[in-house]
C-alpha cells in the first residue's frame, strides 16, 4: 500500500509543480507519450512542414530513435577517450549524408516554442532538451532533402537515357514552325511523359493531354508531376469523370477525350488551351476519331492553337495526310532484345463445360519461368487476356499455383477495378517473388508497368460491336492484329532482355490483319450523332472523319434518335434532344431523367438512372455463393433489376450514415463491389446538378443545422476529412509499396479486412474512397432520400414503373408462349428484332421467373390451351430492358416488368386496329385480342387523351426551360402542379384498369400479311382529325384511316370486308345521353369532344373524355350558338339538345 500523500505533495502536484533542471535531465524519457505530445504540439502544427499525426511525423520519430541510439553509442565511446566531453552534445551522424552540399538545401524555417508564444512549454520541458530536439529536427530535414536530391539526380539520368530525349528540341522547333506535329514512337521511348514536360520547359502554360482511359490520366499525371518536381495536383493535374486535381496553378492537365469534347461543346474555340496533345491516336477509339475531325475544322479558326498527335509507329501516314501532310517526328523505341516463343495450344478437353478458356497453358508458362529463371533474377509476368471472364478463370488457377509455390503474387488489371486495386500492379513484389499481372488490352499502350520481363499473349481480344438488324450489342472474341501483337511483345523489353510467349502458331500471326478495325466502324453511333447535332458540326453524313463510318450505321443512328424524339422530321434537335445531349448517358437513361422531372419522383429516378449507367455492382464470384445470395435477398425486388439496384444503393447509404457499421464489410458480405456504389453516388449528383441547371428541378434545400455545436462538429469533421485526404495524396507515390503474398485475396483488395475509416496518421489504413465520398456528398440529404424511398406507396411505385417503361421504350421483350412449362434457367423471351433471348444471370427474375407468367384465366374466360399464347388475362406483362447483350447467348440486361396492354397503348409508335378495336397490333409485331369491344374502345380513347396531355405538358416544360435559359430570368412554370397531379392520377387509373385480353408475338408470315392495303374506293370521305391539326384520311399503305401519327383505324385484315367502317351500331353517351348509330371511330370522337364530359378527368380508365380532342365524326358540323355566343362541333342531335338548354 503506497504511503499517503502529504498536503505539500498534493499541492505540488495540483499546481503542476516543475522539477529542477537536474531532476528533469536525470528522469528524461523521449519515449514518454506526454513528452512527444508536447513536442508535436509545439513543432508539428497544421501550417508546419511536418504535421502532427501525419505519415511524415511517424517517419521523423523513427529517424529520431535511430539518432538517439547512435548518440548513446557515440557518447559512451567518447567518454572512454575523453571523460570531460559534455554529455548532451550531438555528434556528427555516421548514417547522415557527408557529401551533401548545404547550399542546395531547400530552406525551411523550424520555429521553436519561444518564437510562437508558447512560453508554457518551458515549464514542462527543459530548454536544453528542446534545443536538442530542434537540432535533431534540422538533421532530419537535411537528411530528407539529401535523399530527395539523390533521387532527383537518378531521375534526371533516367530521363536523359530515354530515346525521346534526343528529339526534344526537334519536336519544339517543329511545333514552332507548324500548327500540327505527329510524334510517332515505339514502346518505351517516353513520349507520353516527356513531351508535356518539354512544352512546360519551353514556356507553354496551358497544355491539355488527352488519354483514352481514366487510369492513364491518373498514372501519367502522377508520373509527370513527380518528374517535373511539381506538387501533385499543382502544376500538373488530371481531370476525369467525378474527379479532378486541376487548380488555378495547373499548367498541364491530363483528361479523357470525352471530357475535352464536352468542353468543346461549351466553348467551341477552346480558348483555355495553347497546346493540345492527343495521345494514343493509333488506337482509333470512337471519340478520338471524332476529336480529330473537330480539331481539323477548328485549326483554321485558331491559328495560335498547336496540336501534337502522338502515336505508336502504326499507320503514321494516315494521320499526317489527314492534317495536310503534317510533319512527323519519329522516335525509335528503347527495346532490349525480346525472344518470341510460339506455343500454340493443343486441343485439350477443358476442365468444365462452361469454361471456354483452359488455364493450363498459362500455368505451364509460370512453371517454366520458375524452373528456368532463379528467383534472384527480377522480372515480372504480364498476361494479356481477352476479357474479365477469362481473367477470373486464369486468376483462380494461378492463385492456387501461387499458394503452393509461394513465388508469385497474382493481380488482375482491367477497367472495372477501382483505382486503388489498379494501382497495385505498380507496387513491388517481395524479394524472391514475382508479380503475375492478368490484364486486358488496357496494358497494351495506356498503362506502362515497370519491371515486366515476361509477356504471355493469348492472341485474343474482346470487342463490342453493334448489330443494327438485331438491335443488340455483341461482345465477341477476335484474333488481334499484327500491330497489337507487336505492342504486346514490346512490353517485355522495356527494362532488359525479355521473353514473349505467344499461345498461337506463327502461321496464325501471319494471318492476322495488319491493323485493328476502327471503333467507329463497329459500334452504335446514336450517342455520337446526338453529340454532333448538339455541337452544330453539320450533317454527320458529310463530316470529315479520318475514316468515315458505314453509311448504314449513320442512318440507323439517325432513325433511332428520331424514334426516341431527340430529332424532328428535319433531323434537327428537339427540346428533349438538346437536353439529352447534355447528359453523359445513353439516350434511354436520359429520357428517364427528363420524364421523371415532371413528377414528384425525381429522387428515386435519379438513383435508378445512376444505377443503370454504371457496371453491375454484383461480383461474379458472389453469383455462386449461397451466403451472398441469402444476405442480398432482402434487397431484391420482384419488380425488376432497377428496383433491386435502387434498394441496394439506399441500404448502402443507410449503412454509411451509421458510424458503428463498416460499409466495406457490408458490401463484401453481399457480393457487392463498393466502388460501383461510389460511382452511382457521383453520377447521381451530376444528374441532379444538370437537372437543376436546366430548371427541371428545384435546388436542394440547405440542410438546417440545429445549433452552433452541431455546426462546429460539422466543421471539425470536414477539417479532419480534408487532413486525411491531404495525407493520402502526399503519401501516395513517395515510395513504392511492397505487396504481400496473399495480396490477391478477395479480388485483390489488400485493405478490405480493416474495419472502418482509420484515424489521422493511420497511413494506408485510410479508406480514401470513403473520405472523398463524405467530402463530396451531403450524407444527410442522401440519407433523407433513402429513407423516403422506403415509404414509396403502390401508386408511386406504379408511376415510377411507368416513367421507366416510357424511357426504355421500344426496348421490350415478350415472354415465350411456353415459358410456364420451362424451368427457371430456360426462360425465353423475344424482342422485335431478336428471338430466343434469355435473362442475364444477375437478373432478379432469373431466380423467380414465375412472377412474369400470366395469371390463370379469369372467371368467365375460356382457355383450354397449355401455353400463354391465347390465354385471356388482365395480367399479361412485358419486360423493358436497358440493353441486349450477346456473348455466348443474347442476354436481357437490367429488366423491369410492366403491364402489357396499358404500356403498349401509351408508348407504341405504331398502333393499328380492326373495325371494332377488339384487335390491336403494336409496332407491327405484338397482337392484343380483347373480348369486349366496348371496353377496348373506351381504353383506346383514354390512351389517346393521356398521350396528348403527357406529350403536350412535357413539350411545354422543355420549351419553357430552354427559353428561360436564353432570357436568364425567372418565369412562371407552364405546367402547374395541379395539372401534373391530375395527369398522374389519371395515368395511374389507366394503368390499373383490368380488361381480359390475349397477348402474342406475330410470326413473320403474319406480319407480312397484316394490313388490308390501300383502299380503292374513290368516295371514301376525308374526316377531320382527332386533334384538329390535320384531317384524317385513308392510310396510303396500310389502308384504314390514319387517325393520328401513330394510330391507324380499321387497317388490319380480318373476316369483315372493307366497308365495315360504315357499319354503325346504336350507342348511348354516358355523359350527355346522345343515342345514335355510330362506328367505333365516331364514338371515340364524340367521347373526346362531349361538352358534358368531366373536365378534371374520369374516375377510371373506362371514362375518358379529354377537352383537347376535337371533331372527327362525319355526323358532326361546326355550330355557333346565338344564345350563348360559343362555337361547337355538334351532331344534329347534339344541336337540338343544346338548344333546349336555352329554352
TrEMBL record:
InterPro entries: DEAD-box_helicase_OB_fold (IPR011709), DEAD/DEAH_box_helicase_dom (IPR011545), DHX34_Znf-C2H2 (IPR056382), HA2_WH (IPR048333), Helicase-assoc_dom (IPR007502), Helicase_ATP-bd (IPR014001), Helicase_C-like (IPR001650), P-loop_NTPase (IPR027417)
Helicase ATP-binding domain sequence ranges: 172-332
Keyword entries, A-Z: ATP-binding, Helicase, Hydrolase, Nucleotide-binding, Phosphoprotein, RNA-binding
Record bears the keyword ATP-binding: yes
PROSITE patterns the UniProt entry points to: HELICASE_ATP_BIND_1, HELICASE_CTER
UniProt-annotated stretches for the region Disordered: 75-94, 724-767
Domain Helicase C-terminal: 368-536
Top-level division of the source organism's lineage: Eukaryota
The protein's Enzyme Commission number: 3.6.4.13
Catalytic reactions on record: ATP + H2O = ADP + phosphate + H(+)
Biased composition annotated in UniProt, kind: Basic and acidic residues: 76-85
A matching Pfam family: Helicase_C
GO MF assignments: ATP binding; hydrolase activity; RNA binding; RNA helicase activity
Coiled-coil segments: none
Subunit structure: Forms a complex with RUVBL1 and RUVBL2. Part of a complex composed of SMG1, DHX34 and UPF1; within the complex DHX34 acts as a scaffolding protein to facilitate SMG1 phosphorylation of UPF1. Interacts with UPF1, MOV10, EIF4A3, XRN2, SMG6, SMG7, SMG9, UPF3A, UPF3B, CASC3/MLN51, XRN1, DIS3 and DCP1A; the interactions are RNA-independent. Interacts with NCBP1/CPB80; the interaction is RNA-dependent. Interacts (via C-terminus) with SMG1; the interaction is RNA-independent.
Entry's family note: Belongs to the DEAD box helicase family. DEAH subfamily.
Name this polypeptide is given: Probable ATP-dependent RNA helicase DHX34
Species for this entry: Colobus angolensis palliatus (Peters' Angolan colobus)
